[in-house]
Structures are given as structure tokens and as C-alpha cells.
Amino acid sequence: RASSVGFLVGTRHLNKSISFAYFTIKDRLPQILTRVIDTLHRHKNEFFEEHGEKGVEAEKRAISFLSKLRNELQTDKPVTPLEDELPDAGLWNQYLDYQRNLSNGNGEPSWFQSPWLYVECYMYRRIHAALAQK
């Protein structure tokens, strides 16, 4: 299945500092993550009012998860397999395996060395996982 979508997203890397893809990964996505984290901070009292201490703990876990994600993105860390229990995790991990196979042993797919559409969607999927934690 992953091979059938490969031509849609391409295998261009993001090392072209003037490209839209590079700008998106370097600037826009970290800004989006920062806004999500800030929004969670601002709603801390609401989490407490609705869910008590469990709500506050869930908010802290989500912020920690998203802060780690932002660091991974900004420092061009390898894209990691999804480890959550959401039903589509296997499909995402299958596509990551496909990207690994394309690299022909030239390293792990990373944020700036992977197709931009994939890593942008992957970021939103990880945000979803952070917010869906129990």
C-alpha cells in the first residue's frame, strides 16, 4: 500500500533552504506546535474544573509529548514509529518502513530528509496522539 502512494508525495528532501517545504518544516510547523502547547497552558484551569487532577496530569503529559516532538522536528531527529493504540498507527509505521527502504541504508528518515507532506501530516498525527492520551 505504501508504494502506491509514494509517487504522490515524492521523495524530495528538504535541504533546499529556499523551498516552501523547507520553510514549512523549519518555521511553520514549530510555530504551530508552540501555539498548540500555549493553548493547552491557557486552558489548564478548564482541564482541572472538568477532570480534576487527572485533567491537569493529562495536560502536562500532552505538553511534554508536544515539547519533545517540537525538539525532534527542530533538531532533525529521525522520524520514529508511532507507539500509540490508535487504529491507524500500523499504516503510519508501514509508510515509515517504506521511507526507510527508499533510503537504501543511507540513514534513518528524518524531519528535513523526508517528503515534506509526509512529515507535516505525521506531525498532526502525533498531535492527535498527544491529545488522545488517557
| Percentage beta strand | under 5%
CATH C-level category:
Mainly Alpha
Strand tally: 0
SSE order, as H and E?
A: HHHHH
State the helicity in percent bands. 55-70%
N-C termini distance: 31 Å
* Tally of structural domains: 1
Alpha plus pi helix count: 5
Low-confidence stretches: 1-12
Arithmetic mean of pLDDT:
88
Give a structural overview:
The protein is 69% helix and 0% strand. It is mainly α. It has a single domain, classed as Transcription Elongation Factor S-II, Chain A (Up-down Bundle), CATH 1.20.930.60. Helix 2 packs antiparallel against helix 3, helix 2 (20-42) runs parallel beside helix 5 (116-132) and helix 3 packs antiparallel against helix 5 (116-132). It catalyses: beta-D-fructose 6-phosphate = dihydroxyacetone + D-glyceraldehyde 3-phosphate; beta-D-fructose 1-phosphate + H2O = D-fructose + phosphate; L-glutamyl-[protein] + S-adenosyl-L-methionine = [protein]-L-glutamate 5-O-methyl ester + S-adenosyl-L-homocysteine. Its EC number is 2.1.1.-, 3.1.3.-.
